[in-house]
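Students often ask what a holo structure prediction actually looks like on paper. The answer is less mysterious than it sounds. You provide the chain, you provide the ligand, and the output is a string of discrete structure tokens encoding the 3D arrangement of the protein together with FE3-S4 cluster.
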Amino acid sequence: MSKKLFLETLGCAMNSRDSEHIIAELHEKEGYETTDDITTADLILINTCSVREKPVAKLFSELGVFNKKRKEGAKIGVCGCTASHLGEEIIKRAPYVSFVLGARNVSKITEVLHKDKAVEIDINYDESEFAFNDFRTSPYKAYINVSIGCDKACTYCIVPKTRGEEISIPIELILREAQKAVERGAKEVFLLGQNVNNYGRRFSGEHEKVNFTELLRRLSAIDGLERIRFTSPHPFHMDDEFLSEFASNPKICKSMHMPLQSGSSKVLKDMKRGYTKEWFLNRVEKLKALCPEVSVSTDIIVAFPGESDEEFEDTLDVMRRVKFDQIFSFKYSPRPETEAEHFTNVVDEDVASMRLTTLQNLATDILDEKNKMQLGKVYRVYFEELNQDYFVSGRSDNNLLIKVKGSDELLGEFRNVKITAIGRTILSGEVVG
Ligand code: SAH
Ligand code: SF4
Ligand code: F3S
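The corresponding structure tokens follow.
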């Protein structure tokens, strides 16, 4: 009988990619199969996120539950960003945890498995020349890391402390991974990095120095690869060359994530984001001029220390001007070992909640208005998921989630779909060719 692995993944797409690698390594080298039933698992792993305080608090309550549910002799391991920043403390607070494996050290999973109370959390451990396993959760698209770590120092953010310094992965490794994924049937690649468009900033050895725009060009030369997506690009690095490659290269999907964080130049300065409100608006304007069909999504933090009502208004102003297609919005959450942790001009909790509600209501109004115009439009959809009740869903080039009646024959296929009904999170349509 094979051994069973229960793995919970929190956090961002990088954690999802790390989890794919962990699953594959444990399968190939140790004979593990995944299970959804924690009570039968021989190994229980949580791949954690530290970006806000809530998930960290949740970790310890969840570990307690897992400890009660585990079968006799089952091991519990903690991986990912909270593992990197809390390290040994996790074992002190939850002594039944067998090992702690940092976000930068996932390649060591089969090593720590056999050590008791191992703590591997070196944040500058160099995994940049190490090929991730080919296993993919979805056969239709492949997540590929292009860089690890982050060299920015946004004052609110813990990620540089959990994923270490930024290193670009050699281009030949990225191209090889993409080529292999295409040979296995994926038509889409999703490039990952905390600052993807800063690709090429630093390599760990002697490697061909190319920038992100050139990487996109080289990837798009791969036969059979039809779509390229990426996240997260940084507004600071959106130069004209990058925007025009984005607009003119037909393989690059026309959806851009532009993490604004705040619409106030003063708050952006306090956050050390490296751009102003004007620069952000200028980049959006340029992007939309080059590529009118583009959809734009963003991340916003409300109630950063010192944010005044007027400064929050600036964020709403950018929202109204850009009309984002999707927003991910958060209340500021103080994080350990960040600069902003020591800022004293904290915004009241109820003001923060009110701002978040105001922002989210505005985002919904904008989206409802935009959605009305979708009826009757035709999009080319790449189908990736079979849902209940004979619905198959996928995404348009500009990242709209669309479902049609159909069977698994549509999976991995492109079809033109005419929109027939509007929902807030998903549009419905019918195949027209
Ligand atoms: N590298 C990406 C961000 C990764 S973290 C970028 O620069 O855009 C994902 C999102 O979490 C951030 O964009 C930010 O909106 C949010 N976030 C990060 N730290 C936070 C904090 N301390 N409090 C609230 N939200 C935070
Ligand atoms: Fe965090 Fe800023 Fe790096 Fe993004 S760019 S991961 S927000 S430090
Ligand atoms: Fe969370 Fe780490 Fe990603 S803190 S958002 S899992 S980089």
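The domain at 136-253 is CATH 3.30.750.210 (Transcription Regulator spoIIAA).
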